[in-house]
Design brief:
Blueprint (H helix, E strand, L loop, with lengths): L8 H4 L1 H14 L4 E2 L2 E2 L1 H4 L1
Antiparallel strand pairs: 1-2
Length: about 45
């Protein structure tokens, strides 16, 4: 398995960020408000 570092293009890709947000939305739908993460709910 390849190590991913913070400066790798895979980490910086908007597509990766969108995928991670979609996974979070599936796991914790209650933390999203108006399409954004509600960090107060996460507390």
């Amino acid at each position: 398995m390849k190590r991913i570092r913070t400066n790798d293009p895979e980490v910086l890709s908007a597509e990766v960020v969108a995928e991670k947000l979609e996974h979070l939305r599936m796991l914790l739908p209650a933390v999203f408000s108006d399409g954004k993460v509600d960090f107060e709910v996460l507390k």
